[in-house]
Amino acid sequence: QRQKYIRNFSIVAHIDHGKSTLADRILELTDTVAKRDMKNQILDNMPVERERGITVKLNAVQLTYHAKDGHDYIFHLIDTPGHADFSYEVSRSLAACEGAILVVDASQGVEAQTIANVYLAIKDNLKIIPDINKIDLPSAQPEKTKKEIEDVIGIDASNAAETSAKYGTGVPDLMEKIVHDIPAPKGDVAGPLKALVFDSAYDDYRGVVLSVRLYSGYVKVGDRIRMMNGKHEFTVTEVGVNSPKPIAKKYLMAGDVGYITASIKDITTTRVGDTVTKVDRPAKHPLPGYKERKPMVYAGLYPTSNSKFEELRESLEKLKLNDAALEFKPESSKALGFGFRCGFLGLLHMSVVQERLEQEFNMSLITTAPSVTYKAILNDGKVKKVENPYDMPDPGTTKEIEEPYVKVTVMTPSKYIGAVMKLCQDRRGQYKTMRYLDKYHVDIVYSMPLSEIIYDFYDHLKSKTRGYASYTYELEGYKPSDLVKIDILLNGDKVDALSFISHRSFAYSRSREMVTKLKKLIPRQNFEIPVQAAIGAKIIARATIKPYRKDVTGPLYGGDQTRKDKLLKKQKEGKKRMKAVGKVVIPQSAFMAVFKTD
Ligand code: GDP
Ligand code: MG
């Protein structure tokens, strides 16, 4: 029986521990990719992944491994991202697998996302194969790392694989471990079709491409299928696997990981987490699916040209198919026109979305500063959710403002305890607990406002601990805070997209910082531009942008339309995004000034 020779597994790890490089070696060893087509981290095929050198999307490939027992095994390997913002990709990948390879960098040891990701795998009852990677490094400590895995995570690592994904050492042994340790998929091929949609993408020619894991039954071209939650029905036009290029197959059966297309053009009809079944013989119950992720931060996305609003909507809808965590709804701004308020899982997610919209959908965008969602308790007791700082009601009309708090767990070598605690306290953190994981590591738990950690907490944490500390966080709930809304006025006009919320104790210092930065970032005009920060009607900080001397940059930002057009075109090409607000031109960097603290 074919299922006996199938192995489905994900590769999980903290960022940079070598998942994608290990996938490269596995693809090479099995001749899945021709030598001449091979390149580093070949599964990181999106432009944004290659530019940044990180994995953003899960990527499922099929390959054939000729094992020592003489049999050919079909491996479905899913490479996953390591950054916390993309853990939704990891949990969806794991739901399609029986096993996971837990890669741990032998020079770094166990880090926060190692723990977070392995817990996801344990929760799903997957067989976990620990793999100590980068053993070629002089600083590698395989034995210490194994002990850490046992002490910190609590799984047996005595039989862990040891690899150098870079040079291929140990990878053949790991392949054998996959064959022997990871169970073959179960599931009744003769039963009704149940296929879990764990990912999707939009293709201009084929329509929606569903990535599926079949748990029972089989599917082939011509079958009438139904989305069990969405209820929509389609006729299958192609089934196949990625290897890593798409290869059409006659059918997919229980245990397989592959794709289905069905000329689905209406992107709203399919959903990640849904179950595909057949119309003539439907399954009784859908598969469990996934818990939806709630966005952590919101920001406005506006086309630099107002006429591109509809195009942006279409692009967002298509992107959402491939990025299930993305949320958006239309909003308008006096300064920026029509755009969308978008919800993201974190700042990296936000900048990846922006880049994908530009690279894959050819949009030119202005993004406003990210903000968490506040709750304003109004005088009449009503609660108003505030996703855009500008919408914060006036101080006189509110009883209280609440902000989201998170439980932050920082994992650090014990010698940095002092530095980590100081950082957390400076950011309004309340100490909860500390626990020694082993002799050298502790995890420290703080309750902190989400707004204090989403921006640059990571950078500060890394620099204060020589890169050795890592952290994760989860939402705790809303707590009242002494917050104020600060408006920014340019040339006397409030620019709604620049408003921000600050704790009262930082209001003056942040306002001063903000106007000073805007003064530097906003191009001069032929008139003086006052930049002011205000709480209500009260101005609390001010700077002035001096006019330029006429002869130097004279006509650059003047009224001449053809020049303006040329300029806009040039900006678009150079991705120097700007927006004219009244008579003032505001560059993209100005919208971000609010949260990039030095
Ligand atoms: P991922 O984030 O877990 O997918 O990690 P990548 O596969 O992108 O690798 C991160 C970095 O570590 C890259 O620069 C790789 O070349 C490097 N790397 C991966 N595996 C090894 C290894 O076994 N030895 C050494 N020396 N470097 C490695
Ligand atoms: Mg990777």
UniProtKB/TrEMBL annotation:
Query: EC number(s)?
Result: 3.6.5.n1
Q: Which reaction does it catalyse?
A: GTP + H2O = GDP + phosphate + H(+)
- Cited InterPro entries: EF-4, EFG_III/V, EFG_V-like, EFTu-like_2, G_TR_CS, LepA_C_sf, LepA_CTD, LepA_IV
How does the record classify its membrane topology? Peripheral membrane protein
Name the positions where GTP binds: D16, H17, G18, K19, S20, T21, N133, K134, I135, D136
Tr-type G domain location is 4-186
GO cellular component terms, A-Z = plasma membrane
Give the first-level EC class, as a single word. Answer: hydrolase
What are the GO MF terms of this UniProt record?
GTP binding; GTPase activity; ribosome binding; translation elongation factor activity
Which keywords describe this protein according to UniProt? Cell membrane, Elongation factor, GTP-binding, Hydrolase, Membrane, Nucleotide-binding, Protein biosynthesis
- Where is the secretion signal located? none
Q: Please name the GO terms of the biological process aspect recorded for this protein, alphabetically.
A: positive regulation of translation
Where does this one sit in the cell?
Cell membrane
Stated role: Required for accurate and efficient protein synthesis under certain stress conditions. May act as a fidelity factor of the translation reaction, by catalyzing a one-codon backward translocation of tRNAs on improperly translocated ribosomes. Back-translocation proceeds from a post-translocation (POST) complex to a pre-translocation (PRE) complex, thus giving elongation factor G a second chance to translocate the tRNAs correctly. Binds to ribosomes in a GTP-dependent manner.
Q: Which family does this protein fall into?
A: Belongs to the GTP-binding elongation factor family. LepA subfamily.
Kindly provide the name given to this protein in its UniProt entry: Elongation factor 4
Q: Which species does this protein come from? A: Acetilactobacillus jinshanensis
Gene encoding the protein? lepA
